Amino acid sequence: EKNLRPAKVITISFGPVWFLTPKMTKEYTGLLDRFRDEVFPTIEKKLGVPQYRMVAGISMGGINTLILSMYMGEMFQKAASICPPLYEMSPYASLAEIWDFIKQTGARPKSMITVFGVARVLFSNEEEWKKFNSIELVKTVNPDKVPELYVSSGLYDEFGSYEGVLKFVDIAKERGINIHWRPAWGDHCSIDIPSVAEFLIPNR
User: Fold this and answer.
1) 15-29, 143-157, 173-187 — which is least confidently predicted?
2) C-alpha–C-alpha distance, residues 39 and 37, integer Å
3) 3-state DSSP call for residue 5?
4) pLDDT at position 202, please?
5) What is the rounded distance in angstroms from the CA atom of residue 173 to the CA atom of residue 200?
């Protein structure tokens, strides 16, 4: 649009698989602390403090976006989380429960093995997993400290996460969080690019 200054786009990666979690018992946790205490200050020291901050992520990045929205929400004006793999079911559920979930959602077994395998590497038990799970976090976060959210998920997501994302959205709405829900007609990370672009326009 006219009169809009181009944004500075910053991409952040800690490797092929990483999640912004508080420090827990497993060695791969604690990146949230590092992001808050090291990465974030370093970026703004080099580039200056912006007038308007937004964060966006896809899939694994979508989960990290939600985590930032709830742990550091006051730092951002908007956050777009696209196809985050969210589940009410614990990665420590029984094999029978996981298999029932796969049949119910149409998720690919290989995809679920990947998701729950990574979760078990990160979290020692179900209690630790709940501290990270966005569906649990949104139940207790202060709604006034959560930025305006855009959340989307594919109806036929092969990770079986559509129902979990919808649960997150319903809880967020009930708690008065300003959230834009965009179901997508497709599989994992089907993106409605125009609606994401429109959402990310400042002051819209």
Assistant:
1) 15-29
2) 6
3) coil
4) 85
5) 20
